[in-house]
Amino acid sequence: NPVAMANESNNNTLQREEKISFYTQYRFPFPLTYNGYVSMNMRTSRNDKFLPQEATGVLWTSKYANLSVDAMSDMFELQTENKLMFNKTWDDVHTLIATGLFRTEQQQNFSYSSSTSGNASPNLSDPVVGSVVAGIGSGLSEVRSVSSIGQAVYTYDNRYVFKGTLNMEGNSAMGKSNRFGTFPSFGVAWNVQEEPFMENQNWLDEGKVRVSLGWSGNAPSGASLYLGAYQSLGTYMNMAAIYPVRIQLDKLKWETSREWNYGVDLSMLDHKLNFTLDYYDKYTYDLLLNNVYIPVTTGYTTIKYFNSGEMSNKGFEFRTDYELFKDKDWRVALNFNVSRNINRVEKIPDNLTQDNYSFGNGNYAIRIVEGDPIGSFYGYRYKGVYQNTEDTYALDASGNIMRDYLGNIITMKNGTIPVYPGDAKYQDINHDGVINEYDIVYLGNSNPILIGGGGFSAKYKQFTLTTFFYGRYGQKIINSARMSLENMYGTSNQSTAVLKRWRSEGDNTDIPRALYGLGYNYLGSDRFVEDASFVRLKTLSLTYTVPGKFCKRIGINNLNLFCTGYDLFTWTNYTGQDPEVSLPSSATSLVKDGATTPCSKRVSLGFNLNF
Q1: What does the pLDDT look like over 536-564, one tens digit per residue?
Q2: pLDDT tens across 126-135, in order?
């Protein structure tokens, strides 16, 4: 009952937050500077909710009858940083910048919640006569991290730059044996425009070539994950009992990445044309896998984290901007960026379990395969529709009709069910006459081939027009919404596409016949894997800057008026509502479009005023 929900329910949250920061700087008589700060953040949140029985219509015995929830959380965060920097130049040729940095971070969290049902009213939500405690719980955690960084940058004659960094990190989520990790990095750069042979070259304003190699670490998130944990079992033989629920992880290691980077920076035509190109090669080992299944003979079903597996990421990033035209009244500039990332599983984790695929409509296999990227799709190759009885005959690898030991023709099966004309046709990979998990193949992956954006800005006197386009090319996604609207399996609404379904021999269609609650006409296949490439106009903005003379006349510094449109147009061949779906979040997640509401077209009007 929406009226009762609006009038009788409540869901109120009161949050208070205080932030305090102290900064200090001291310059020594010699070329040494100290900078430091201490920052504290305190946040308290209180939430109370009441779900009235009039709104839900449940029985008075239900746990949702006049349900009341009281919850609070308290967070305290402390951050500190101390930095020493040495900066000196000798003979206008040698320059040394050395930095020492020490950071700490500490965060404490406390939470409490309780819920009761059968309350007389929102104002009587405590466990009094007539109310029942539906749930109660609390939590307390503390996380600490520390990092110490030393860096030295040496420059010779503004031409050659050498850089070295040593980073040492510690995290309270790690066990005592591997609590600290050490990660070095090195880099060199060459400023080509400073070379003597470039003195008479006026076309190059700046040219830099960069090469670097570095290691970085990643620790698991959470509080003291290396510790074993216990949970109440209730009573055992009339006594209170506990049992272990989390295994102790003394040998857990940092996830480590090694990365090469090669870069070029160019600036030409009096800084009007600029290019930046980077190529990277990143290799990650000792991957931190979350909630890993282990044999139940150990006494546990999962462990929180496990180090295993190796993965690589290679790609490039390119950026450019060009001032096309500029005079007293006009300025027109262009900008563009594009990137490409190639992800690859180099080594399968040692404890990797087989995919838990079960044969059935709509199911795709989730696999991690050496040589394939994370976010890959595995399923069946869709071949259309069986047109007639002869088309349903099973064929061997040579294309000959298969027969059983009695000489009878073998008919194809989808799972255990023989197919008939009008049924979905899938490729029989192993030529055994049965479509099952042995016919699953790689169908592509959800990683875009290219991601890019760009736009232009045009200024005429006080008016400025700016645009920004964003797009992806070559991203594959599972259109599960289309699957639901074309399966013709149940009583749910279907799209008009099913009007082209197969009805009789000779129908030119790739949509199977309608089968209510029967058959396997929508197995997870490339039929529903679509190219979600798109280009979207993310922003279009027009700004007017009020002339300075007028601003002074009315006693203000400056005034800008603007009108900005967001997500106004999208160009794509994708059949779903919105091609901009999320990229894969983990190794075991499939990128599916379940008819997510597309982004809204928005227009914003406003002004910026300084006085």
Answers
A1: 999 999 999 999 888 888 888 899 999 99
A2: 544 457 888 8
**Three-state SS sequence of 485-504:** HHCCCCCCCCCHHHHHCCCC
**Cβ–Cβ < 8 Å for 449, 456:** no
For residue 459, what is the enclosing H or E element?
strand 450-460
In the three-class reduction of DSSP (H, G, I as helix; E, B as strand; rest coil), residue 297 is classed as helix
With CA atoms as reference, report the closest residue to 106 among 144, 80, 74, 140: 144
What backbone torsions phi and psi does residue 480 show, to the nearest 5 degrees? -70, -25
C-alpha distance from residue 295 to each of 229, 243, 251, 292, 303 (Å) = 18, 18, 19, 10, 10
Cβ-based burial of 127 (10 A; exposed 0-12, middle 13-18, buried ≥19): middle
DSSP 327: -
Q: CA torsion 526→527→533→537, rounded to 10°?
A: -150
Reported pTM: 0.84
CA distance 443 to 427: 13
Beta strands in 91-203 (DSSP E): 94-117, 132-156, 160-171, 180-191
Could you tell me whether strands 288-293 and 424-426 are parallel, antiparallel, or unpaired per DSSP bridges?
A: unpaired
b/e for 344-359, b at 16 or more Cβ within 10 A? ebeeebeebeebebeb
Euclidean distance between CA atoms 531 and 473, whole angstroms: 8
Q: Tell me the two tokens of residue 522.
A: 């929508």
Model confidence at 598: pLDDT above 90: no
Q: Tell how strand 434-435 and strand 413-414 pair up.
A: parallel
| Token pair recorded at residue 313 | 């990421």
The DSSP H or E segment spanning 45 is: strand 32-51
Sequence letter at residue 509: T
How far lies 500's CA from each of 64, 126, 425, 512, 542, in Å? 46, 60, 16, 9, 46
Cα dihedral sign for 188, 193, 198, 199?
negative
Find the helix or strand (DSSP H, E) in which 21 lies: strand 10-27
Separation between Cα atoms, residue 134 and residue 326, nearest integer Å? 70
Residue 303, pLDDT score: 85
The pair phi, psi for residue 4, each rounded to 5°, is: -65, -35
CA pair distance 49, 117, nearest whole angstrom: 12
